[in-house]
Design goal:
Length: 278
């Protein structure tokens, strides 16, 4: 099943036998303030923070960053890491089985207005944690932001939907091979969508859902689709619609999702949590 989560917190959760659980502020800070970034564990006690908007004066505004940092939970310190070759925000980062990282597409040019356009990068980069370096693997067929991506196997990644440079949404999908650096077209998603999510069930099904078709209060659907090499199959429906929910795959194979927004004007946050078994 999936569990959905949307935030990364720089707080330490302290538990004692006599006291109630408490949050306390992490002792160090990121060197670069950022939003719309990615963060993934690269070691049991280390988290790699990548990209995102900097010099922001509002939501979805700013300069996409190349800079990366490592949060060391054991030392409670933040250290600089090698920068990406291309600055990016609103991108996808996936962990590899050996705790390296793949960063996929995103917006790379300065965005000057709320929700405005910016140059997109088609590049896919690979972070080697033992060498602390990034290298470009290749390019997507379609550069995109606000997309979703998920592993099909140990070397192929399915990339679905997102927003194009002219701010239109896309239903296009493709499969990028990290061994060859080549991307191949895949069957398009049933809807043009941005801010959608994906997960793998314990039986190996690849599911994609959520998102919205355009700007605030634009079309969104409660349908969950299963990817197959020949096309998309309606898998089931959610009780409600949600854009940008958080998703976490649980160790028992279930999927938890929560949060997201059913609408933006007036602003509304999805309050409920759902578990899926498959």
């Amino acid at each position: 099943m999936l569990r959905f989560r949307s935030t990364f917190c720089l707080l330490v959760f302290a538990v004692t036998a006599l006291a109630q659980p408490q949050w306390r502020l992490f002792e160090d800070t990121l060197q670069l303030g950022r939003h719309s970034f990615q963060a993934l564990a690269i070691r049991p006690t280390q988290v790699l923070v990548m990209g995102g908007f900097t010099r922001a004066v509002g939501g979805k505004i700013g300069q996409p960053a190349r800079e990366c940092e490592i949060i060391d939970i054991e030392q409670r310190r933040v250290f600089p890491a090698a920068p990406m070759n291309v600055g990016r925000a609103e991108f996808v980062a996936l962990p590899t089985p050996d705790s390296n990282v793949v960063a996929i597409s995103g917006v790379s040019g300065y965005v000057s207005t709320e929700g405005g356009s910016g140059t997109l990068t088609p590049t896919v980069e690979f972070y080697e944690r033992t060498l602390n370096r990034w290298r470009v693997l290749g390019n997507l067929i379609v550069a995109r932001r606000q997309h979703t991506a998920i592993w099909l196997d140990d070397h192929r990644i399915l990339i679905v939907g997102g927003r194009l440079e002219d701010l239109s949404s896309t239903a296009s999908a493709e499969i990028f091979d990290i061994l060859t650096g080549v991307s191949q077209p895949a069957p398009p998603y049933p809807y043009s969508m941005t801010d959608l999510v994906s997960a793998r069930t314990r039986t190996g099904r690849i599911l994609v859902w959520g998102g919205r078709q355009g700007g605030p209060n634009s079309f969104r659907t409660n349908e969950i689709y299963e990817y197959t090499p020949t096309g998309w199959r309606l898998y089931q429906t959610m009780p409600e619609v949600s854009r940008s929910p958080s998703v976490i795959a649980l160790v028992d194979g279930r999927v938890l999702f929560c949060g997201g927004s059913p609408q933006e004007s007036p602003n509304s946050i999805f309050p409920r949590r759902y578990l899926y078994r498959a």
